[in-house]
Design brief:
The protein is of the alpha/beta class and 229 residues long. 38% of the residues lie in helices and 18% in strands. It is globular, with a radius of gyration of 16 Å.
């Protein structure tokens, strides 16, 4: 399953959080379409490599969502690169990307690199504060989605509510304006019911914190989404 267009569900593992071998096996063998390694702070080369080597015991596709330069390493199937469209600071939209491409441009395999237009919608999320994001109105979110698809031709538009469950009506409204760009939803999914609800509108749902807070609930989100197909 290396074609993202067929993905419905992914788990996101935070390199800064501990996970037992037993739980990691459950996640990787759950039937999820991919496992993303990513977080906002304390993401180091050491904790990324540790997760990568442990996930590689399984066949599930493995993605690094890049949050800093220090933890970039070869060995992942894909590299997701966020560009925070609602940041006030150019650094998080294209600044660090410019620096990285200056350094790695000659060795980058663009077939593995997937750009994500991020819109961070939870003011309490670490990533919101970290990237100096500003809270958008509904019309702003729709405009960011259109920019992601039509201006930048990003393959992904990511509605990021990290830590809290978002607004399904807004997710639906965004879905209605996207044609080619995949809509990814992440934030606060803890149950099969929530997973089903968001996957009615989003192409791909992301389950993160529930892995660490309620592994059984997290695992149930996979089948919930697959049954909808
Ligand atoms: C040698 C080799 C393999 C080369 C490969 C070439 C390659 C892939 C080069 C990369 C080129 C490139 C353009 C890199 C980009 C560099 C970069 C640092 C860009 C900035 C990315 C960015 C905007 C980061 C900000 C933070 C962010 C949006 C992170 C996303 C993850 C996220 C929101 C997690 C949720 O937060 P979490 O930590 O889970 O919160 P809680 O703990 O509260 O749950
Ligand atoms: O951790 P949660 O709230 O599930 O969010 C998932 C993901 O969107 C975080 O980047
Ligand atoms: Mg998290």
């Amino acid at each position: 399953m290396y074609d993202m267009n067929n993905w419905k569900h992914v788990f996101k593992l935070d390199p800064d959080k501990d996970i037992s071998d037993d739980d990691l096996e459950k996640i990787c063998e759950s039937g999820t379409d991919a496992v993303i390694v990513g977080g906002t702070d304390q993401v180091t080369l050491e904790n990324v490599l540790d997760l990568l080597s442990r996930i590689r015991r399984y066949t599930v596709p493995c993605v690094l969502e890049i949050s800093n330069m220090e933890s970039i390493t070869p060995g992942f199937d894909f590299y997701f690169i966020p560009s925070v469209l609602n940041s006030r600071d150019r650094k998080w939209i294209s600044g660090l990307h410019h620096e990285a491409i200056k350094e790695y441009g000659d060795v980058m395999n663009w077939d593995e690199i997937i750009m994500e237009g991020y819109c961070i919608l939870n003011q309490e999320a670490k990533a919101f504060q970290y990237t100096a994001a500003e809270l958008p109105e509904k019309e702003d979110v729709i405009a960011y989605a259109r920019m992601a698809e039509k201006m930048f031709h990003f393959p992904i538009f990511y509605m990021e509510y990290s830590g809290t469950y978002g607004d399904p009506e807004l997710v639906q409204a965004v879905k209605n304006v996207l044609k080619d760009t995949l809509l990814v939803y992440g934030g606060g999914i803890q149950s099969a019911k929530q997973a089903k609800e968001m996957s009615r509108y989003a192409d791909i749902i992301v389950v993160g914190n529930a892995i660490y807070e309620d592994i059984q609930g997290a695992l149930q989100t996979v089948q919930a989404v697959k049954q909808e197909q």
